[in-house]
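Two folds, back to back.
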Amino acid sequence: MSLLTLDGVSVSFGGVAAVRGVTMRVEAGEIRGLIGPNGAGKTSLINVITGIVRPDGGAIRFADRDITALAPDVIAARGVGRTFQHVELFREGTVLDNVLTGLHRHHVYGIAAAVGGFGRARHVEGEARREALALLQVFDLATLAAAAVSDLPFGVQKRVDLARALAARPRMLLLDEPISGMSETEADAAVAAIRSLASERAITLMIVEHNMRVMMRLAARITVMHEGGILAEGTPAEIRDDPKVVDAYLGERDEDA
């Protein structure tokens, strides 16, 4: 049974079709790439899946439950996480504080314990801090734990965003250009960390990324979008050699989102 199912999903903005009748199946544990030219509808599709945008038509099911009309926070609570193309962090907070926010719904305790600062509250906060610090270590951020996010380069903020998204322990994580702004060395390290944690935690991934070197190495299957619809789908090798994909996308080198 597929973990994520889209059936004929469409969405328009001001009469312009951003997503046109998309039907897709993503299996549990899969790493799915989502590529296409600028304006192909990739981010719009992620926004529809995560409830930020309501589809005009079609249906979305996650873990065999209909999530088509659910609010973003409810979808997130069901286990669907995401990152944004332009990072959405608490810019004046520290790196550690930002990652801790991803853990908040997994570490809860009573009001009395919170006010008194004892018992379960101390234990839970300690566990959350240890988990957050472990994620910082994975993404080579441990030495920046106390740094304000606003003081960090964009590529480093991207790594903080990844750590926070994984801290939420999603069943499925949708990554919108997760390595943009990173050097090749940073990108390779981040990809290795994502792959390792996804395997270790049984997280299904859908990744939008323009870096085709990374995409071809990371994704097991790739879906190609063009003008709001699906142009092709297959293994990295099949996509690389598909004439339609080469004509529509792989020949371009525009790195804008």
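---
second:
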Amino acid sequence: MSNETVTGKVILACAGPGDPELITMKAARYLRQADVILTDRLVSDEILISHVQPYAKIIHVGKQCGRGTSTSQETINDLLVHYALSGKLVVRLKGGDVSIFSNILDELEALVSNHIPYEIIPGVTASLGAAACAGIPLTARNHATAVRFLTYYKSDIVSEEYWKELAETNDTLVFYMSSGALPKVVEKLTANNIDKNKLLAIIEQATTLFQKVHVTDLYEFENKFKQQSFISPSLIIIGKVVALHERFAWLMNSSSNEYYFKPMASQVISIRETDKLHKHVS
């Protein structure tokens, strides 16, 4: 009897920004073949119901730091390695695109260190989905020269010199995971005299049935929105292109305040506990 270890494979794939139809055909194909799926919180339940086989193990490993409920990156890495070394086909399913503001580097390091084969499948990132569904072309001619993907959650990650550059550039600015820090973002940009023709759009739960788009002059933000909290996920677009929303918006704002992505109820702690926490899709 052979004692040779059969190594499986890990697929680093994307579910898109919310709308379940925005998943790629390749990612959907691998989900149908997978033995184990490690899924983020920002993945539509409909994707898991439609594309995952009944025998597959689904493990929820989302992060939700604002609510104190998150799966550690170390645990996620351990799960990937554990199941792949057990000979399983594992899909690591992330919201948006796998390479934009995700922890793909940590996961790649774990896979390479353990000689585990893998594939990376690109997808629709949140900024592209949100912009499309809000009717905001991010690099519209005569409105923007480029687009920058940014995040801001603490003061020491952006220098004062860079705030000045961001205020002066004609690039469209897209902030991920920054709605909680939005008052500070606006404060920094207005303090550096950002052009009044550059507007701010906050897009809640983009591409879903509960999408809402809020547009304002940055200098009016404090009066209109400073005390308002926005439903996660929310994406922020700043620039002259935001003015195009009024003309080209094609998806009506939802009247609902429901969460499309349900808040996490529990945390995956260890590999052993996944047998208790996982569910089978029926």
